[in-house]
Amino acid sequence: MKKILPIVLIGVLVLSGLGTAAFTNSVSKDQAMNVKTQSTSVVFSSQPTISEKDEFVKIQLDGATTQLSEPNKPVLPIYVKTIQIPFRSTDIQVMCTPKDIGSLTLSKEVIPARITPVSSFGEQSMSRKDASVYESSAFYPAVWWSYELGAGRNEQDQQVTFVKVICYPVRYSPLNHEISYAHRFDFQVKYTEPIPTSQPLSEKYDMVVIAPEKFYASLQPLVDFKNSKGISTRFKSVESILNEYDGDDPPEQVKYFIKNEYDQANITYVLLVGGLKSHIYAKDKDTRSAGYSAWWVPVRYVNIPLFEDPGCISDLYYGCLYNGTGGFDNWDSNHDGVYAAWNASGAANDTFDLNPEVYVSRLPCTTIREVKTVVKKIIAYESSGPDAKPWYNTFVGIGGKTYAYYQGKPDGEYLCDLAYNITKNALPDLQLVSCYSTNRDTGRPTPTPKDILKSINQGASFVYFEGHGNPYSWNTIWFDGTYPINWTGGFNIASYPLLINGDKQPVVIVGACHNALFNVSLIPALLENKAHHPHFCYGIPIPYCFCAGLLMKTHGGAIATTGCTGYSLGSEDEGVDDPVTLSGALEINFYWQYGNNNITNLAKIHSQAITKYINEQPIHQLDAFVITNWALFGDPSLKLGGYPS
Predict the structure, then answer these.
(1) How far apart are alpha carbons 530 and 536 in whole angstroms?
(2) N or C terminus: which one in the chain shows less Cβ crowding within 10 Å?
(3) What is the pLDDT, as a whole number, of residue 404?
(4) What is the mean pLDDT of residues 181-191?
């Protein structure tokens, strides 16, 4: 299906010579009571800047970290600061005081955020305004600040509680045509540290492989290989988990097992091995929140609807074990049997944590042959290091005009360039092979099937597809083209037999809709049409999705892939300042963790990309949607580049 475009109608205002935000931090501790206080101040040295955009005004504040952009509501600058405190701290108190308040009168209304399918992109339409805000004299947001609690692993692999303080330095009163702004915020986080306990581990190990008993023999070589590389690894069958652990449904039983291993053995990685039991026909859902009868390893469906998507598959569910208060987080906080509900039909909203404690990925294999193929690929890849892989110094970027232009480039090409430049920090000799739409008249590679095949077949450490997609294919628009007419040709599953890159296998990041929707099978896909397409295949009979097929490809393909099990979300140039938003932000965070943070294990990169996203902005429904549907296929402990011989 198409990539979806949340158009946030606020332009880019380039400022120079204006003020910035600065903050100071201090820590104090009451030794007798084990009470600790962290204090922070943030100062904005200039007042908000106002500029006109058609019938609206845009507001920017230098030093703001991001923007508040809820659908159809005013877009306003905000400041987010996340503080880490010990896990299971109690009596958490957050206090924040805005200071030096000023006000400005506006000549027009503040521009609203507008979300629309990319199929409507370019059409002239009126911006919708939320009447509850725009027809009120009350200030929006209603408060100067708020905070969110979460729990998960930080970049040092420590279990912590995240206290995220969100400051709203600009508030808007529509009927009064006025904004109120603060020059300074002083905030304080006070908490009681947990009393240290010495809970002995039953026997520490690093990774558990969860799969059906049928796959055990085929996975044993991987378990042995991982143990030889210092990743202490054990196998646990799905059948034994379902016999030994309680839960409201099979996915929850699996999650309780993972929690037990985390608590008792401090595991880091979880490898789920198994997708649907049949490529021909599978009924992928047993309830609105779960699939298990047709699956080798159960799946959790979240209930965060967006357009035709009622909710997506999310393996992140298995990695998020605790909430900000230290309790087990089953993603069904109201116990109504509808998991991770957020504005879902007929269900009350749940409160759930999205910060992972363990790093999870899946091999969505259906057959023993597919398991053996992927196991062989992982062992071959990790058996030598980057120095033995001259092709590892190649980055393939594949993109065009997903939505619009940004900073003089088609936005898809901009994201590929950004990802390459970040990755180059870790690989200084990295060379870019650009399959770009702007290369069309130059003789250089373009996002066409022939050039994509040639580029991947030469080998690369990373391949980044940025555009539009569905479970069958990926595609994009020419730099001078119009959606949905001027497609470049892209790449699809039918071309996989021509992938002959052998052991020169990249990590493939796919930025597009539904390319990782791994609940597809042939007959259900064939029976779909434009009116009814729960798997977004539209009558194309495919046995597996784009991302899974790359991983399971013999004699080539990918060593790992990421992609969306639902709609991928982004923004256009007049939106939230740049394409690095929503799904695009997660993808760039992946490269940031590798290039700037020196993380080299696959699922840790993926999980920390999510944690970085969460810690940098408030999480609304769209954010939760893109986070939960961002799938990872591959070995979670995979050492990128492999181990030196």
Answers:
(1) 9
(2) C
(3) 87
(4) 97
